[in-house]
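PROTOCOL LOG
Step 1. Enter all chains and additional molecules of the complex.
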Amino acid sequence: MKISAKEAAMLLCAHDRILILSHKNPDGDTLGSAYGLLRALRSLGKTVRTQCTDRLPQMFSYLADGVQQEDFTPEFVVAVDVASVSLLGDAVTEAYPNVDLCIDHHHTNELYAQKTYLYDGASACEAVYEVICEMGVSITPDLADCLYTGMATDTGCFRFSNTTPKTMRLAADLMEQGARYAELNRLLFETKSKERIAVERMVLDTISYAADGKIALICISQEMVKESGADESELGGISGIPRTIEGVEIGITMREKEAGGYKISVRTAAYADASKLCAAFGGGGHIRAAGCVINAPYEQAKTMLLEEAARFL
Amino acid sequence: MKISAKEAAMLLCAHDRILILSHKNPDGDTLGSAYGLLRALRSLGKTVRTQCTDRLPQMFSYLADGVQQEDFTPEFVVAVDVASVSLLGDAVTEAYPNVDLCIDHHHTNELYAQKTYLYDGASACEAVYEVICEMGVSITPDLADCLYTGMATDTGCFRFSNTTPKTMRLAADLMEQGARYAELNRLLFETKSKERIAVERMVLDTISYAADGKIALICISQEMVKESGADESELGGISGIPRTIEGVEIGITMREKEAGGYKISVRTAAYADASKLCAAFGGGGHIRAAGCVINAPYEQAKTMLLEEAARFL
Ligand SMILES: [Mn+2]
Ligand SMILES: [Mn+2]
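Step 2. Run joint prediction.
Step 3. Record the structure below.
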């Protein structure tokens, strides 16, 4: 059943011994929501803890500053930024098969909880902020930091198209309530791991241009991944690099598979249809971002890609 | 004489044949202010043109979309985002020695104009927005794009400490009035030139770490600059790279001078005093960012720097 922010606030106010769940591979939004809600509920004198099947990533450790996790049998279970029960992880689902309340912002939310406050906006932290305001909690700087984190991370620091005027205004409120936004943004958006820097260096060495610089292609080999020590999350943004180059319409990333062959990711800037390009190799996707697989040696796969891509300019 | 936004609006409304001046090496703020003000004044039926001693950079060409520059003898001269008359460039100052109105946000404004509206905030575009609102102009999407550009570029897309709650709220207003923020942000913050990518690749090859990864050092040689074809503006952000690496407290950039020797830039993350470190080599600066010059061969200069830096950890 869908409910409003006010009803979610009333439910939370009516319960104690509250467990807050985040989704696996946690991001700034699910964690900012969880620690923000924990701080708000504790300020009302409630017994609360957070749980996630994965460890709190080092870069988000500030969210938990000063928070001691308590052990207790929960009376009320809340999931934040969790669109599907499968995202909780098996161990969590087994221990807590019933979720009483879900606060989320994904259109795709499966409404698996008893009650769901489904917010239409950029981040779950905006939804949690509304619920916290309904509870009459005053926002401390630590709490403001938590909620700012989700708003900033889910919108690429207010850059992406999902940012709304409301996101901007709620973030402004949090800045007034003491969010350390400049420090947070440096930590969240300007910090790269040594492994990421290392793999980026190797990948940049592979850049090749075609069609007068309108096509750029890079390759991430198994050897680069091994040598740099980068993990999957650190490889994330790399396929975005070719399209960020001035004048490039089609950006192609070849990622060598463990068993050989290549996973191809294509991003386009303004007019070329990435999904049609990938369809030529049995893949698909969207107009600006698509993918396919090519099981061929490097030079051959590269030549096929560049020839096909040139037809889309 | 300092005046208010309302008085600036009244002055502009009382005049026609208005020339708007931007500062040299123009950025998004001075250009967004100029084209925004031009669009607002033209919507009131006035004859207006903009002028800058340097050409409109390609990345900002959208600001002038649909704008035909007219030739006329100005009756009223306005400077936007220009803190000092010297920033107009000699040719402009010679042609227009008298500036009637300055709309700016730099504390250091030299009050060279007849009247100055000095705004206390992140960008001149915020000040221009206030003046435009006082004039009762309705904001079109094109105008919103211009003003959003200055707010976003002067704050690193709302990341830096100069961002205020007011900046966020004014940007929210512009988003509602049709600013194409997602496209603009991709263009302004995610695009790198091929030359910049090339020099970055070469510079990343020079990274070395010391003191358990707490010190990172890179070098930009004359040869890299020549080979990549990167110009000064494209080299700008590079000295920021070492400090963005996770765990690095002291980031050092060695920039080879044309005549030999190195210009050193030091950035620190949390506790090390960059100005004291540079003082050891006769330089200086601030706690988090400082510089010096070392006239020694590469290996020797590097060793001296790493040894000195280690003492500040
Ligand atoms: Mn989210
Ligand atoms: Mn400015």
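Step 4. Note key features.
The radius of gyration of chain B is 22 Å.
Residues A 29, 81, 105, 123-124, 154 surround manganese (II) ion (ligand 1) (CB under 6 Å).
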